[in-house]
User: Fold SCO1431 family membrane protein from Streptomyces alanosinicus.
Amino acid sequence: MTAHPATATRVRTGGPQEDGPKILEHVMGWVLVAVVAMLVTQLGLL
Assistant:
């Protein structure tokens, strides 16, 4: 059996960055919510 070291480096697969700007992600999420809400009300779906 081979033991894997606990500090093995992980290969990046292009996923979300762990050290990215969290506030920008949060603001963009709320902007998306507002745009979807405006679209729903303009189309009369609600």
Notes: The two ends are 61 Å apart (CA to CA). Residues 2 and 39 are 56 Å apart (CA to CA). The chain has a mean pLDDT of 81.
